Amino acid sequence: MTQQGALADPPDDRTALQDGLRLTAVALTNAEIPFALVGGYASWARGAPEPSHDADFAVTEKDVQRAKEAIASAGLVVEQPAENWLFKAFHHGQLVDVLFRMVGEPVTEELLARADVLEVLAVRMPVLAATDIVSAKMRVLGEHACDFGRLLAIVRALREQIDWDVIRHDVRDHPYAKAFLYLADELGITDAQRAADVDVEPGRAAAPTGSDSD
Questions:
Q1: Which residues contact 121 (CB under 8 A, 6 or more apart)?
Q2: How far apart, in whole angstroms, are the C-alpha atoms of residue 184 and residue 156?
Q3: How far from each other are the two terminal CA atoms of the chain, in whole angstroms?
Q4: pLDDT digits over 124-161, tens only?
Q5: Element (H, E) at 86
Q6: At residue 179, what are phi and psi to the nearest 5 degrees?
Q7: Which residues pair with 37 in a beta bridge?
Q8: What are phi and psi of 99, to 5 degrees?
Q9: What is the three-class DSSP state of 213?
Q10: Which of 181, 200, 199, 201 is nearest to 189 (CA)?
Q11: Are 46 and 161 in contact (CB under 8 A)?
């Protein structure tokens, strides 16, 4: 039995993670730092299954130091790992990643400007555009990280929000992403229009067939 007035027990992991997400979003908003919710929770905010391992935000590199200070002031424990593309913040042991590079490319003001302000866990915040979410997730597919099952659940949920022409352009040099796109095409998830007797290069829609014959 705890004595009256003693500190309450720490929240469960899911609650702690969601609280960390909210605290981070509010801290960045109050500090007037441009940002966006990205990754699994951005997908969830747009209708995909809820993730469980961490929350992810994106800021530009020039705002990293201010973001660290704002998030630390909100009570999270901020750490700089060896990786030179993000920093980490912890709330009751649950992880919030703040990225300033995504898929090896700098987070830009243009990327953040494409985000939509949505209500997430009762807090209004910018959420990365669905096309940008899926593009990033597809381009990180590789030999050591190739979970098509989880990604299929996301693209099924977001399919109507995705600009598939942009996706095809973005993944044109990524063989694992093209393989996933071919599967999504075959499953009827994308906007690809296929003729049953036409061979199509993976990741590309079949060319429209004419109705007239010579």
A1: 18, 21, 22
A2: 9
A3: 87
A4: 999 999 999 999 999 999 988 899 999 999 999 999 99
A5: strand 86-91
A6: -65, -40
A7: 57, 127
A8: -100, 140
A9: coil
A10: 181
A11: yes
CB 98 within 8 A of CB 24: yes
Whether residue 213 has pLDDT greater than 80 = no
Tokens, residue 177: 């992403």
Residue with tokens 């929770």: 41
For the question of whether the overall pTM of this predicted structure is more than 0.70, the answer is yes
pLDDT reading at 108 higher than 80: yes
> Read out DSSP for 137-187?
HHHT-BTTB--HHHHHHHHHHHGGG--HHHHHHHTTT-HHHHHHHHHHHHT
Would you tell me how many other CB atoms lie within 10 Å of the CB of residue 20?
A: 25
Residues contacting residue 161 through CB under 8 Å, at least 6 positions apart: 46, 129, 130, 131
Distance from C-alpha of 200 to C-alpha of 148, rounded to nearest angstrom: 20
* Cβ neighbour number for residue 208 with a 10 Å cutoff: 8
Give the three-class secondary structure for 102.
strand
